[in-house]
Amino acid sequence: MAGPYLQQPSFLLATLKADCVNKPFAQRCHDLETVIEEFPAKELHGIFPWLVESIFGSLDGIIVGWNLRCLQGRTNPTEYSVALDFLDPSGPMMKLVYKLQAEEYRYDFPVSYLPNSPITHHVSPSNSAYFILVDTYLKCFLPTEGSVLPPPSSNPGGAIPSPTPRSPAVPFTSYGMHHTSLLKRHIAHQPSVNADPASQEIWRSETLLQIFVEMWLHHYSLEMYQKMQSPHVKLEVLHYRLSISSKHHGSPAQSSYQALHAYQESFKPTEEHVLVVRLLVKHLHAFSNSLKPEPLSPSAHSHTASPLEEFKRVVIPRFVQQKLYIFLQHCFGHWPLDASFRAVLEMWLSYLQPWRYAPEKPPQTAELLPRSVSEKWAAFIQENLLMYTKLFVGFLNRTLRTDLVSPKNALMVFRVAKVFAQPNLAEMILKGEQLFLEPELVIPHRQHRLFMTPTLGGSFFSSWPPTITDASFKVKSHVYSLEGQDFQYKQMFGTEVRNLVLKLAQLICQAQQTAKSISDHSAETMASHSFFSWFKFTPSEMNGSYTGNDLDEIGQDSIKKTDEYLEKALEYLCQIFKLNEAQLTQMMMKCGTAQDENGKKQLPDCIESENGLILTPLGRYQMINGLRRFDVQYQGDTELQPIRSYENATLVRLLYRLSSALNERFAEQMNVLCSREDFIGRFCCYHLKNPRFVHKIRYSPVLKDRRNQNWGPRISLRFLASYRTLFSLLMLYFIASWFYIGPVGCTFIILFSYFLYAVIMTFFFEGRKPHEH
């Protein structure tokens, strides 16, 4: 908090500062309440900046404050209750504000000190004192029932007078980053005892809303946003980003775009920030929807609506729409591609559905059916067309880059599709697009008109332009005022966006197939688990290959949820965009035939080259999102492959040396035996010859000459280093001891049994090594 500090701290201020160290929190608040009640404004003026810092913290971080974002009733009920009482709209803190305001004391708060995002804490934001206070202030100053409560009286003479309404020439606050102070000129107005009481009722509501909008939707200005949409500027900013890591200094041309880049990148809202904006959006819808319906009788029109009712009528388009749109655009373009985007998504969907916060209740007979969006919301949809269409396209582009096998990502697609599939909503959005695309030459009186940006920075009491009744002009004004006169509109129900929806539908089908494959793989793995799984090896490990996936850990329940979300999302998308059933069925069949005879997925999308397979951009996307993959197979000398977790490292090395010595000593004899065409030759090949790699499995794109290399006949004793083999032998010797069979006899039985087994396998499975079963 920046404010006019006294040159020499008063005795009162020094006493209060000492109490902060010596007294408990509850006692300090009680003493402050007494001071505020008993001392005059002249004395309180000096302690106000310090009190604000002690509550909310200092800009330099030295003073932490009361930490309202972490203060919860469950963990600290006493301080929680005391803080809420002290900061309540009718509590001591606001009494101090009214007392100082009546005496014309002024405090500057530079716009540059406004927070870009709240600090993230490991607590539930909705239960914190900060959120409870925000909700309380919204309900108090923007009431859905009744009127705004008058400020508490601090002197016997009556209520504290309020400032006069501001003139249109004096804007309320500085939008963007062009001005330096917030609320300065507003508080500078002299109070007027003769001011209209109804107008005095509104100025506090308007002030609160403007402060919240500046704090939570404070980004760059509308002019800056429109400048950033220029293709030329986007290209220059991209060049600037690419040159950041360069050793050379940026050129003068690049330096002119450094500020534009900084404007975008410096604003990084958090989930907590977005949640409090959603709280504001939901309450503003409820506040606006509490507007009394216009009377039908002609005589009633002669009565002027109250300022509060008029405020409800214009509160969203005049104070919130522009900044919220820029805020959402920034979030859609810069938020990480992870599940935390759900907070932004729900805030966006809350704004798109004002009917959810209307006072009327749906009939009980229709509770089980989707509620149709009433035609009375057509004006809201048309005047917020970009919120529905351009942001939907932004969501599509984000979704096409995410992993839809993840249940959280699938849920987000389901939520958006469900909202837009509400009966009559798509039709009203389409009607809004048609109004926007209506040729300007059709209506003569609308020619040569400029679509000007509305003055959203002024006061509610500023002069209002006449009501625009032309629906098409309203839509055009909304679009061009936000995006500029040169904006090229992309139709939500046009061919380009429809193709994006078809890509999303294909991606959903692929994700469903992937989830099914993971589910089948998990079921097979669970069925093949045995007692030996305690020793951390599985049949796939015994074959020297890894067929697992990071998504194996999401679990059967999550896979089931993913499939349900994606199935319903696809159904809703078909309803919204009237997708051709035949085309969709063909697409799903194409995804279904993506499995080969072994029930495995196809290779990622690749192209053939002289060096083997090369991944295409689609193939990289498929691998990143787990939609397709290559089987990882060791293709070198099997004796030299890395030591596995189920093998004893010392035994592997010793047995390799022994095998190498035997192979070197008897190499010529083994070649002769394996060259024979009789049963002995086949028997020796079965035991001594390493099988050639065949093309029945899917390999990663490596050099082809590796796959067909023949290492010749040789002895391999590495299987004896496996813990599984050692444990099996130990169990056999242990069981044999029960029947009074000694180690020598047991060894003879094992060798004889294996000989019989090898003879049978030689007849039926030529060329396969026994320890690779």
UniProtKB/TrEMBL annotation:
Subcellular location: Membrane
Membrane topology according to the record: Single-pass membrane protein
Domain of life: Eukaryota
Keywords recorded for this protein, A-Z: Membrane, Transmembrane, Transmembrane helix
An example Gene Ontology molecular-function term: sphingomyelin phosphodiesterase D activity
Predominant cellular place of this UniProt entry's protein: membrane
Transmembrane segments: 723-741, 747-765
GO BP field: ceramide biosynthetic process; glycerophospholipid catabolic process; sphingomyelin catabolic process
GO CC annotation: membrane
Keyword Membrane: yes
Protein name listed in UniProt: Sphingomyelin phosphodiesterase 4
Taxonomy of the source species: Eukaryota, Metazoa, Chordata, Craniata, Vertebrata
